[in-house]
Amino acid sequence: MASFNPIRLSLVFLLATVMVSHAFVMRTSTPAAATTTSTTTLFSTSTDQSLLSVELEKPLGVVLEEVQEGQAKGVYVLELAEGGSAAASEWSNQLVGLPLAKVMGTDVTNLDFDAVMDQLIAAPSPLSLDFIVESAASSSTTTTTQDETSSPPAAAEVDEFPIGTTVSIKVLDNKGDAETVIEGKVGENLRATLLENNIEVYKGMKQKLGNCGGGGQCTFCAADFVESEGWSERSDYEDQRLAKAPDARLTCLNNIQGPATIRLV
């Protein structure tokens, strides 16, 4: 089994789909149009703090880090992984920097990093998460109106291959010869698509038994990107975990963005 970084800088859970609605606390009944209005209720925790409640499917596209290194002070959102629906949602500019208060209603503010991870891993999908936000009022209801043209989701920046577009993914063997060509849809998780098409993502007993199940920790699902079209740069987290493989990505942390030729490593 791959060893973990002792500093435990971060843990990534990538959301299996990039649908923006998964990050909404509440949704209006009005169908989506050019302008979308959503209502979020902030529940008071003190005179200057409130809770922002969201519901997300597993795996999450959220990078977490300890509030205070080595101390049981909880975790906060360090960044959102590219390709995840959290990063693609309208909350992408709000979640970063927020401390995680509750997981499925359980207070995690006084837990250490590993204990918070245990809570997240054990929780069913979708997860109910509460984040601490600063607020001068004891309770308030905020209505946010977003014009799609003024602040588009990160995943929508690549217009060449809209969400739902069917593209080809060519999977090479270790010798570089063409092995299999599969189809996937833009927005779907790459690792899940490979597994659904019977691609052997994990090779050998060590990887089959020791993989993290798509949590972004073991790096066993890494793939070299030989060619790609419409894909953004890999995340800073991948730069850290795959420093010796500059062309590789973690398939569990990447949703399909366009056609690609990859080689599993």
Here the CATH topology of the largest domain equals Pdz3 Domain
The number of strands is: 14
Main beta-sheet strand count, sense and barrel state: 6 strands, antiparallel
> If strands are numbered along the chain, what order do they take across the biggest sheet?
7-6-8-3-2-9
The CATH superfamily title of the largest domain: PDZ domain
Describe this protein's structure.
The chain is 14% helix and 32% strand. A 6-stranded antiparallel beta sheet has the order 7-6-8-3-2-9, with helices on one face. The protein is globular and about 55 Å long. The longest helix has 10 residues, at 113-122. The chain folds into 2 domains: 11-155, Roll (Pdz3 Domain); 158-264, Beta-grasp domain (Ubiquitin-like (UB roll)). By secondary structure, the protein is of the alpha+beta class. 34% of the residues are buried. A hairpin with a 4-residue loop joins strand 2 (35-44) and strand 3 (49-56).
How would you summarize the topology of this molecule?
Elements lengths: L10 E3 L21 E10 L4 E8 L5 E5 L8 E6 L4 H4 L3 H4 L4 E4 L2 E2 L5 H10 L4 E8 L5 E8 L18 E7 L5 E8 L4 H7 L7 H7 L11 E7 L7 H6 L6 E3 L9 E5 L1
Parallel strand pairs: 10-14
Antiparallel strand pairs: 1-4, 2-3, 2-9, 3-8, 4-5, 6-7, 6-8, 10-11, 12-13, 12-14
Quick tags:
single chain, alpha+beta, Pdz3 Domain, 2 domains, six-stranded antiparallel β-sheet, five-stranded mixed β-sheet, 6 helices, 14% helix
What's this, in brief?
This protein is of the alpha+beta class and 265 residues long. It has helices at 85-88, 92-95, 113-122, 190-196, 204-210, 236-241, and strands at residues 11-13, 35-44, 49-56, 62-66, 75-80, 100-103, 106-107, 127-134, 140-147, 166-172, 178-185, 222-228, 248-250, 260-264. The radius of gyration is 19 Å and the shape is globular.
